[in-house]
Records
---
Amino acid sequence: MNATEESRHHCAVVDIAEGKLDPSAALEFVSDPGFGGIAMFVGRVRDLNHGRVVTGVSYDMFDALALNGFADIAARCDAEFGPKLKLYIAHAKGRLGIGDLAVVVAAGTPHRDEAFRACRQVIEAVKHTSPVWKQEHYEDGDSVWSEGCSLCGHEPEVARDAHAGHGH
């Protein structure tokens, strides 16, 4: 599922993928001859969390609500960073193995500082305000839904400070 949103100031791709995420598609999308800065975050499934051996994760979401949320995040970035911004937001859905890509966020801007700040703002907002649920699968056969902080209603900066250091 893919939605490309073009407003008067920005261009963004928001995507939910049941297959593999492609960071090269993000890089290609946010590239522009006038952009000297591109920042990218690629989140992968790790093999250890809270002292437990992880064998994989499953992500679930209500696609239309998640896509709308990603588009809202892009619009908020547009309001802050202005017309010279391209964003790419993609999140995986379904079962993922260790090392698989869970999320790809990229930001292209004329300067590196804006690219880094926009990329960080987007990933924090995706983690703290998007309707994405994660279930971790463990070596002992147990599976647990992460508490997370989806839809908690906090602003991304507040949520980031309140949840600093916790592993979701």
---
Amino acid sequence: MITYLIVQALLRTLVFFFSLYRKSFGRLIFQAKFMNRKQTSASMVWNYLVRKGLENGFKKVSELREYTRKSKSILYPPLQSPILGCVSKMEKVDALRGSFWFAMKNCERPYYCDTHNSHPSLDHENPKVMMFIHGGGHVSGGALGMEAQAMLFAVRDYNMRIKNSLAPPCSHVLSVEHRLLADPDEYSTMDRNLLTNSVEEQIEDCLQCLKWFVYEKHIHPRGIVLVGNSSGANLIVNMILLKLINSESTNGRNSSNPNGDGKDPSQNELWPVHSVALFSTSCDISRTIIHQDFVKENFIVAIPTNLQEMFEKCLQPEDKMRYSVLKNLIKMEKIDKQLYHKLFQCKWVVNYSKHEELTPENDYFVNLLKQHVDQEDKLKIITEDYQMHCYSIGYSLVPEARRGVQQSLEACIP
């Protein structure tokens, strides 16, 4: 708690003095790269500090992985703090590779429990539960990292704001711990409980978490909100495309499933969920649809070259091609004309910055969705200008992040 209070005081003091400097020497600031008059001072400071922090350099994938998996809070209070915390109970789920199950603070209404595995007409006021998947380029991050902390406090604020309304709260959050891609140099010695060399196994870990909701907690899929950041958003979309609604594999081979629907029989009970919310989705890891030259000069590039090279090194060439969200959407639509009808059985919320390195990918993704959505309330697009990739992590400091995340929760939870 002391560390958090000190960091918050320092950051807010820095923003205050920067604001004074900005008023006096604004022209000099706006000549600097990655700064624009539309940004708040807090956003400028945040972008600068994040970029400088990442530029310090990680020599190995293991160093980056260890750094991002630290759960000590510096931007947010301890999760279970009696005064400033956001959760009343947290439980480590060993069966899900150490994922964490959180009961949100001051949220008395329990989620709907479908103990008889029936399909009732769910009341829109019933609390929802969230399955959150962190980002990290498939190689880093963890269930207790800053991304998860930011989302938990955002859910707390959402619950507080709608407390006296008819809107449903989010009563519980499962922060997913999935295996991370290892450096190829680590394959012979890697801990296979923590690491993998396959995106397929990451998706399988996420699928097991969704099954845990339905079969262990007896939560109806219509009460589940799927939320992901960056590579976590990629895993969510690929899980939906390849595991939940796929009628044929994307390489054209027919499923061997005896039911003839291309699904494991249990998958029919997992979809549709209530909604899907994606933040800064990594849409084209194949780099075959969106090329580097799509990135414009005024984009705010958060990920330095050395980290990009780490991510590329850990992704197998075949995985880059197989798990490109854009490639899969284009290919699957040719096979299944009902693809988008199946996707829009639930609400979709897409949040990203209009000036991040993944903006072209997300623009392309959004255009595909817009071309096929037939009900306005099934798709919500939320964008902010001049923010970094995964700007939602700065929820505690940056007004643009708070606004964007809260708009997303207001769209995906009710």
